[in-house]
Design brief:
Number of strands: 16
Helix content: 25-40%
Largest sheet: 11 strands, mixed
Structural class: alpha/beta
Distance between the termini: 54 Å
Mean pLDDT: 94
Bound molecules: threonylcarbamoyladenylate, magnesium ion
Radius of gyration: 20 Å
Shape: globular
Low-confidence stretches: none
Strand content: 15-25%
Strand order of the largest sheet: 1-8-2-3-7-4-6-5-9-10-11
Amino acid sequence: MLTKICRVDEKRIDSRVIEEAAAFIQRGELVAFPTETVYGLGANGLDERACAEIYRAKGRPSDNPLILHVAEPRDIVQYAYEDEKGLLWRLANEFMPGPLTVVLKKRSVVPSATTGGLDTVAIRCPANPVARELIRMSGVPIAAPSANRSGSPSPTKAEHVIHDLDGRISMILHGQRAAIGVESTIVSLCDDGVHLLRPGFITVEDLERVCDRIQMDKAVTRKLNENERPMAPGMKYRHYAPETELVMIEGEDDKVLDFFDRSLEEGCGVLCFDEDVRHFSSGDRWKQVDSYGSRGDALKQANLLFDVLRRVDQMGVEKVYVRAPLRDGVGLAVFNRLIKACSYQLIRLE
Ligand code: TXA
Ligand code: MG
């Protein structure tokens, strides 16, 4: 299949390009597009066959439900029932359009191919103007997972999408680098109150300012036991993972740096904070050391993380030790993506 790749500037959108992309969506074909979180792989969310194509192109298990993207927050209620407590509108007023996804009871217009057979649906109104224009011109809600091959890190640049999906989909809208760099925060409003299923740029602290109590799903920070199920089906898969084995290291500066020194001697790689890099002497070892942002800047870490994870396999080592981020604010989103990339291998240095 020939994939058409077109550049779009989110500040000066060429509507002919978006029209062409919208025509593909209307014909049941797939278009990758930029959002403020990560690039999405879009299809008509009301068309079962089009949604099935998403699973094929990504190589993704079809029990993993898709997020439905709408152009305006008010469109949410065309596809889902609002919750009884009015939490939807409180959250929408504060965070939409933006990087927040809400899970609600679905209406029957949404086919079960979109929701992996669930009676609930995840919906988000992205802030990126290219994404919104595409949804508007398509005239349908766009179902879109992240536009990566299943299992590899989510794409934050058009180059990542081209690497993973060129030749497998009809069109790629080549926009700017994703402003945020990790996927949206997901909350469910289906049970009592607000349940956090996946952390993101909108933090627990942000949500608590608007809603009283946030309950965090266990799958956010740890591996579930055989008999436990995550509230978001996608949280159970090994995600974001390079081929190289990753192990997370958590602890004080001196202990972690000492551990890293010994690891480099044993021929392993290290992924650390910017400040840690100068600790290592130059020479051949620099190839085995990479960093993912400054210690106190979780926003930057979130922004760099997936790009850095895509480079890990080029270190040429079998194992890479990754310094754990702080777990508060946006750091929780970084921790969540990293612990999964590490297949939950975590060493705490006391
Ligand atoms: O930022 C984002 O959310 C990006 C951009 C493209 O919008 N999309 C994205 O989609 O990250 P995806 O498919 O990679 O992740 C969707 C997550 C999965 O973990 C899935 O299990 C969960 O959302 N999900 C979808 N529908 C759900 C539902 N009805 N109930 C619970 N979890 C759901
Ligand atoms: Mg994904």
